[in-house]
Structures are given as structure tokens and as C-alpha cells.
Write a structure and sequence with these properties.
Rossmann fold; alpha/beta; aldehyde dehydrogenase (NAD+) activity; Nucleoside-diphosphate-sugar epimerase; single chain; three-stranded mixed sheet; seven-stranded parallel sheet; NAD(P)-bd_dom_sf
């Protein structure tokens, strides 16, 4: 177990979805949590989670800032990413290099929320901890390089990578669920189907992911110096389960349309979101499931909030549930 001083975690990206959720989960388990933000005062005012987080000023692109913020921390949660998929080739690797330097200096464990970008889903339908990482996408190649650097550093700074599917649920801002399937229109009038017909997809309920990170960190004696752990999450076998859960929670059927992947491909040469989204299309066209064997070996079982309960919480966070007192009409 950690000593009292070492049970301090620096969360890079604490103002984001996964970073904020992990910060809350650690606070609930008695950790001291420090969040670094470019504008600490604004971050503190905007924080709506559990009280107790300590905000410090800093930029993940500045090594001196990261090293100063990490002083005295036993864990560094690297949950920071360039916004909107932009500038990955320029920012992702320098940021992880700064985190590695800070972890080495203080002997801290690095925690990385892992992605499925590392795989070519046409070749790897089931992602195990030792599955070949040969992605076709630029973002995937960057993530592979990032994890390789972490593995090389793990002799002096242990590493925990928790790989999960697409985040959804309270706190999962700008996710494919909230921005893609649900969209911004209110009231909700239709659902957007993201997967190719019949293609399965892995979804990760954000509170479950965060609590799993916290549980793993509370058992450091079980972790290897370099630990890749997969979280199966909610497996939507053919792309219809998530829309059905939305309809069940709302008590009504909704028209459905397909996401315009063709438009992303057509607009890809112009850059921006279309280019970045088009690169991810294979992840929505081929099934890619995550193996959780190692997670079950470490914790006994995978934490799974019942899907209906999770969906109600997710839609409530988006302001989409029926007004209080109005029971949903069963979908039939």
C-alpha cells in the first residue's frame, strides 16, 4: 500500500472528462488530489465535483511546470489530450515526455487512460494486452509510440494503462455518445447511428472507468512495473443496443439516421474535424472488443453499472430525461 505522503495524485487534464472523473474517484477513496491547469483560478471556480482538489498553475507542454506540480506525488494521471483531435503529431509525445521526466524524478507511477486507436480493427477483433499494435491511422501510430515510451520508462517509473472503449455517461463531454449519437438538439428528436450496420462497438461508462482506476491504484502491490489492463465495458454487438437503451430510458421510440461518414471522407482534404473523424471510421466499421482477463485477475471482476441505470444517469446529465414525476411510457 501507499504511505500517506505517496497517496497523493497529480491529475493532468483534471478539467476534462476522464481526468475529472478519476480525480473524484480518488478523492472518494481518501487520496490527496492535485489538478494542474493553465488557469488554476478558472479551473477551481469551474470545478463542480467533490471538494478537496488542490489546483496548481501549469501547462503540460512545459516540463518545469509538470515537475513542480508532481513534487511529492506518488501517482501522475496523464489524462491530457489536445482538444478536438487537433495537433496530435505536435503535442501528444512532448506532453508524455514531460510526464515521464516528472515521474522518474519522483518515483511516481504513471496512469494512462488507454484507447483502441492502437489497433487496426480489421485485423484485431479482440484487443488483448499482447495483441499486435499495427494501426492504420496517424493517431493510432502516435498512441503506439506513446505507449512504447512508457514501457521503456517503466523500469524507473511504473506504468498503468487502462484501456477502454468510447467514454459515455456523466462527465463525458464532447464524446461520440453525447455529440454524435445524441447531438445538441433539444428536445431530442432523433438518434444518430454511428456504426456500420451489424458492426459491434465497445463503450466505457466513465464513472466505472474512473472507479476502476482508483481500485487498481489502491492495490499497487498487485501491479507489474508495466501494466496494460483492458476493460470490456458495454459491448454493443450490432450497434443497436445503445440506441435501445436511450429509448428505454426516455420511454419513447425515436427516428434514427446514419452518421454521415461519407461527408467526413469528402471533406477530409480540407482538414479540421472531418479529417480527424474520417481517420476513425474503421473503428465504427469493424467490431473491436476489449479483453478484460488481466483486469479480472487483478480485481476479481469488472465493475459494471447496470446499463439501464447508467443510461438514465447519462441522459439526466445531458438534461434529457422526462420531467420529474412523469414516468416513462414503456417502449413496445
Amino acid at each position: 500500500m501507499y504511505g500517506q505522503e505517496a497517496k497523493t495524485a497529480l491529475v493532468l487534464g483534471a478539467t476534462g472528462g476522464i481526468g475529472g472523473a478519476v480525480a473524484e474517484a480518488l478523492l472518494a477513496r481518501g487520496w490527496r488530489v492535485r489538478g494542474m491547469a493553465r488557469d488554476a483560478a478558472t479551473a477551481a471556480r469551474g470545478w463542480t465535483g467533490a471538494p478537496g482538489i488542490e489546483w496548481v498553475q501549469g501547462d503540460a507542454m512545459r516540463r518545469a511546470d509538470v515537475m513542480a506540480a508532481a513534487r511529492g506525488a506518488g501517482v501522475i494521471v496523464h489524462a491530457v489530450n489536445p482538444p478536438g483531435y487537433r495537433d496530435w503529431d505536435r503535442l501528444v509525445l512532448p506532453m508524455i515526455d514531460n510526464t515521464i521526466a516528472a515521474a522518474r524524478a519522483g518515483g511516481a507511477r504513471i496512469v494512462l487512460p488507454g484507447t483502441v486507436y492502437n489497433y487496426d480493427p480489421a485485423q484485431v477483433p479482440l484487443a488483448r494486452e499482447d495483441s499486435p499494435q499495427q494501426p492504420a491511422s496517424r493517431k493510432g501510430r502516435i498512441r503506439v509510440a506513446l505507449e512504447r515510451r512508457l514501457e521503456e520508462a517503466s523500469g524507473r517509473a511504473p506504468v498503468l494503462i487502462l484501456r477502454a472503449g468510447d467514454y459515455w455517461g456523466p462527465g463525458a463531454r464532447s464524446s461520440w455518445f453525447s455529440a454524435g449519437m445524441i447531438g445538441e438538439g433539444r428536445p431530442l428528436r432523433r438518434l444518430t447511428l454511428l456504426t456500420r450496420s451489424g458492426a459491434g462497438h465497445s463503450w466505457a461508462y466513465l464513472p466505472d472507468v474512473a472507479e476502476t482506476v482508483a481500485r487498481l491504484l489502491d492495490a499497487p502491490e498487485r501491479l507489474r512495473p508495466f501494466e496494460r489492463v483492458g476493460m470490456e465495458g458495454l459491448w454493443d454487438e450490432d450497434g443497436t443496443r445503445m440506441p435501445a437503451l436511450v429509448e428505454e430510458a426516455l420511454g419513447r421510440r425515436l427516428p434514427r439516421k446514419r452518421f454521415p461518414w461519407w461527408a467526413m471522407r469528402a471533406l477530409e482534404p480540407f482538414g479540421g474535424f472531418a479529417r480527424e473523424a474520417a481517420e476513425l471510421r474503421p473503428l465504427w466499421s469493424h467490431p473491436l472488443r476489449i479483453d478484460n482477463t488481466r483486469l479480472r485477475a487483478l480485481l476479481g471482476e469488472e465493475l459494471r453499472t447496470p446499463p439501464s441505470e447508467a443510461m438514465r444517469a447519462a441522459l439526466a446529465a445531458l438534461g434529457l430525461l422526462e420531467p420529474a414525476g412523469e414516468a416513462p411510457v414503456p417502449v413496445g
